Amino acid sequence: MTIPIICEIYLTSLYSYYWFLCEVILLFQQYLVDPFTVIIHFLAELFNDSYGLAIILVTLLIRLALMPLMLKQYKTQMAMKEKMDILKPEMEAIQQRLKTEEDPKKKQELQMEMMGLYKKHGINPLNMGCLPILIQMPILTGLYFAIRNSHEIATHQFLWFSLGQPDIIITILAGIIYYFQFKVSQANIPEQQREQMKFMGLLSPLMIVIFSFNAPAALPLYWVVGGLFLTIQTMISQKLFKSKQTNMSTNEK
């Protein structure tokens, strides 16, 4: 194969990738950014051009739309926690043997035994409900660009801060609220997964703070409202599913 042909193939591939990327950006703009822009402007007009209230309402609408998925996630986590509590003595015994065992073959057998216990009781350690997080990512990105590209939002004041400029107070508040929300949500999660997720519990609020330092204050406002909503939703869900499981256990007895 000659060099000109290789170059032609490479340029054709690059051109195709470029047009595919352009199509994705246009679709993203058309189906996420533009609708959010229209909704925010519409709600702001209803509240005497208060874009802060409009962003709060959009946040609540997004959270209400995601609520069925979040409730399903809480239910899955509570059920898994209950099963893990039953398995805890057996799991601890296997883990203790793993610590003292030096033979690689025996270690592998113990790990297989652990996986067998998971399978027997219908437990999937990876099934911690990633779907709501994955769905939120494009939604949040769409809202971010709707806020970022709006001249009206950039020039409006809400409470003590300008929506279009970074604000350290609302930024730190967003980080604190999301850390608190993480701590509240830990009650649903089995102890083994809880230990594994400690790092993420610190990383997520930290990333929110770092990202918000250079972002319009409208974005951490979204996180503050969303974090408060999630915290209240988590606390109510914990009580709701816990009482249901207690009633089911009582009926079984």
UniProtKB/TrEMBL annotation:
Subcellular location: Cell membrane
Keyword terms: Cell membrane, Chaperone, Lipoprotein, Membrane, Palmitate, Protein transport, Signal, Transmembrane, Transmembrane helix, Transport
Record carries keyword tRNA-binding: no
Gene Ontology terms, MF aspect: membrane insertase activity
Keyword Transmembrane helix: yes
Pfam family, one: 60KD_IMP
One GO CC annotation: plasma membrane
Bilayer-crossing regions: 12-31, 51-71, 126-147, 159-179, 199-215
Protein topology in the membrane: Multi-pass membrane protein
Swiss-Prot/TrEMBL GO biological process terms: protein insertion into membrane; protein transport
Domain Membrane insertase YidC/Oxa/ALB C-terminal stretches: 51-238
Alphabetical list of InterPro entries matching this protein: YidC/ALB3/OXA1/COX18 (IPR001708), YidC/Oxa/ALB_C (IPR028055), YidC/YidC1/YidC2_Firmicutes (IPR023060), YidC_ALB_C (IPR047196)
Classification via PANTHER family: CYTOCHROME C OXIDASE ASSEMBLY PROTEIN COX18, MITOCHONDRIAL (PTHR12428:SF65), OXA1 (PTHR12428)
Role, per record: Required for the insertion and/or proper folding and/or complex formation of integral membrane proteins into the membrane. Involved in integration of membrane proteins that insert both dependently and independently of the Sec translocase complex, as well as at least some lipoproteins.
Family: Belongs to the OXA1/ALB3/YidC family. Type 2 subfamily.
Protein name according to UniProt: Membrane protein insertase YidC
